[in-house]
Amino acid sequence: MTTAEPVDELVSNTPPDKPKKDKAEPPKERRVRDPIPEDQLEHRQLRDGEWWREIPAFEDVDAEQFNDHIWQMRNSVYGEDSLIENLEGLAPPGFVEDVREGFHKAPMAVRITPYIFSLIDWDNPWEDPLRLQFLPIASRLSPDHPMLTLDSLHEQADAPVDGLTHRYPDKALFLVLDTCPVYCRFCTRSYAIGVDTDTVEKVQLKVSPERWEEGFDYIEQHPELEDIVISGGDTYNMPAKHLRNIGERLLKMDNIRRIRFATKGLAVMPMKVLSDDKWLDAMQDLCDLGREMHKEVAIHTHFNHPKEATAISKRAMERLFERGIKVRNQCVLQRGVNDSIETMKLLTKRLSEINVQPYYVYQHDMVKGVEDLRTSVQTNIDIEKAVRGVTAGFNTSTHVVDAPGGGGKRDVHSYEYYNRETGVSVYQAPSVKPGEYFTYFDPLHSLSESVQQDWRDPDKQEEMVEQALEAAKDRDHQRI
Fold this sequence. Notes:
This protein is 32% helix and 13% strand. It has 16 helices and 14 strands.
């Protein structure tokens, strides 16, 4: 038997080819930004001086008085008589009667601090973004959307005890009082906040240690609860002793990791932070105690328009910042107030300038008596797209819809279905109420005349809602 000759192996001393490296080439053209002149950085240009002296009622008020929170509270414009007295001789002819009529049609009482009252442009109050938020006028009111309910977010339905809403698995909303330093027209809690009006008899959520105890007991009995929002009403109106007692009681519960105190006050009466040392010391002590216990305590406030932030605001926020108190902002998108890209860009930057972190921009809740202030979901989506990138991501708000019916906060663009013709958007909240669908409705003024007519027909109302729900469910099934 013969055998094949062995084949010599080919041996090469040549090293293997090295992988080629991409060579970084300098760009042929570099984008060079010209420095922006300081006088064009509008977000830094905060109103200062004694501007309030332009208002006849405040022309003799010096800075020391104006910056005192007690003077602000005592001189707030509150109720019809006070309102009309302050407007006569200040606002244009015809406006006073417009206000007088609107006052009796609004679900919220009127209370405006001298600070906010003095920032309104009284030469053109019809269009002023601050007047729009706090002072109703009959000529601009619109009929409510037919799908609107008084407590559209179902806060009471999700409340196991009075004033404590437990909707999210680990978070609860604790409504400890029902008064505020101002009353916003668009308040989502117009079912409870402030005094009764001609159109709404309020649910009672008065200051009550006995009611609070029921809330504390519930929180302690539910170890899954870690995050409590203390609101109302407004924690600005809580005496320091109550603020301290509630905060300490919650922090000492083993299950609680985070506390947020909600207040509009920083935006409408910043001088409280500058002149009420007892309240500020109580807030700082709670923040310090939280840090010692490795728990977070923060303030959530509510600026809606750049005009609300002045040099006084900055001084107040700097005092909070110096004491290590974190402040975040929750804004409500409103037609004629902040529903433009440029306004929201400026607000975002100005909040950062005064050490307030933009957190949420809410789609306007479906609130009684303020259909004129609501915008479409599409408006919100367009604004978010344009604003994102104007500054750092952690200083940019998330835009949300608080889903009617108790679905909680959903990213505005996360709808399951959105019919821009009928204005019906459908959301799901799988971690909050799995399997349920929640509908939001664009304001009637954003729809065509023919569709507005359809919404006045109960049969067509049902048809439009069912069409949107079926479309949302079909898309959901297609994904499965």
